[in-house]
Amino acid sequence: MPPRRCNHPLNPASYSDDSETDDYDDEEEELNCTMRCISCEEDYDPDDAGTCKECYEEANEIEEEYKREIEELKAKVNFLKLSYPVEPNGHSNPYALTHTDVVLIPYGDSSSGSVHAHKAILVSRSPVFKAMLENDMEESRSGIIKIDDVSYDALSAFVNYLYTAETCLDDQMAFDLLVLAEKYEVKHLKAFCEKFLISGLNLDKAIANYAFAHQHNAKQLQDSALALIIDNMDRFTRCEEYADLKDTNPRVVVEIFEAYLAKQVNTASPLKL
Amino acid sequence: MPPRRCNHPLNPASYSDDSETDDYDDEEEELNCTMRCISCEEDYDPDDAGTCKECYEEANEIEEEYKREIEELKAKVNFLKLSYPVEPNGHSNPYALTHTDVVLIPYGDSSSGSVHAHKAILVSRSPVFKAMLENDMEESRSGIIKIDDVSYDALSAFVNYLYTAETCLDDQMAFDLLVLAEKYEVKHLKAFCEKFLISGLNLDKAIANYAFAHQHNAKQLQDSALALIIDNMDRFTRCEEYADLKDTNPRVVVEIFEAYLAKQVNTASPLKL
């Protein structure tokens, strides 16, 4: 593509609308201008002009500042996170974790072991553990916390997250960890699981996710799933999950219809009402 | 200031250098263009053009992504940092800090108390504490760590930083914490103190900072102080601190002169050599 050129008056007189444009012909060499984007280095038309040089340079400085701040925050995260040693089989290694003073037992999973931890960490991450371990309760005295209806793998991932703020998720693990995060009031983990589930949402998963989010007070996920469902109401009412949901939880179905109706009313043009 | 306008050929024929510029006169209305910066909304001259619209929009999206990443990292830092309760008088409150299993005693400061902490935190933040507390050493058995030549205030701020990655600094506290960070290999705190001292550097402080940095292996601070000194060698050799340093640490003075000479040689023009 040939470079786009435009003539522009360097002569201050030309700022006035009364300027003599005839003068340009004699000064063509001087008046020609090419605008080349400093960023992508492509020539551009004045209609596609973005910013002046000063704003470009300022934006560049701001970007550098953001990058520095990100690096500093990442270093802070690395400093603050605690290592929670996990063996190659995914099980925690109590021998590598020194000075532990509490054991968490997955009560619903008789097949595997327990998860060792430090009271100080559990207390700092969860108001529920704090109340449990700083008062004269059975768990505080015995140093044993039994947790119902949870697999060893989910409990281990949960405790690991309390140490590191990191975990690997698939849908099932995100559901399991969101339940634990809700129960023990670990907001950061709950938001992390919701974000993961929202990023993988599609219409096939929307009903299950909506019902789950409804049950566990996961507002962000609930809103995202609901938006997807009411955008596809016809398909929704024809799928198998809909029939199941109508049987098991008709109140949830009513809520979805109410949201659908509210959207219809809000988006209808005044003439049609 | 009147808007700056330039004529530009919308006619594709004008891309060629042979185009007839006479045509523009008849099409003035159509050909006029005003370039207004999308960011500051000021009109600008083509010579001051920055980026095209596409790059501006892309840069905006990247900026939004950086902002989101910063927010997420800040939330992660808040989740990971542990509270270390400090009373209004600046002293730690062992009763508010539950499940502690180690006490740090400032051996050089007989006036005040001790600092309570958790072995698990000290071990995770410092390789020196890790070696001390995970092996069969006196400190590991007794749960008491005596630290020489440190004030209670510095030790308390040091332990607080291990929990929170935060502290309030003045020059003296930055020196004290840098010494502890060096001794216990807490790199994050050492970098934090160096950055603080560098930000407040001036010629009056440069010699003391250089000598201190030299002694405690603080490379960033040492380089910054040295650069300031050799830019002002004449003033440096006339100040009181110079005379003291020559007496107490002549090797450091020699190093400064060597750096000065190296700079002279490097910046001299080839003709003068």
TrEMBL record, chains A, B:
Membrane topology of this protein: Peripheral membrane protein
Keyword Coiled coil listed: yes
Keywords: Coiled coil
Coiled coil: 52-83
Disordered: region residues: 1-27
Subcellular location, record wording: Endomembrane system
UniProt pathway: Protein modification; protein ubiquitination
Acidic residues compositional bias, start-end: 17-27
Listed Gene3D superfamilies: 1.25.40.420, Potassium Channel Kv1.1, Chain A (3.30.710.10)
Principal location: membrane
This protein's GO CC annotations: endomembrane system
Pfam families xrefs: BTB (PF00651)
Matching PANTHER family: SPECKLE-TYPE POZ PROTEIN
Protein name: Putative chromatin remodeling & transcription regulator BTB-POZ family
Lineage, highest ranks first: Eukaryota, Viridiplantae, Streptophyta, Embryophyta, Tracheophyta
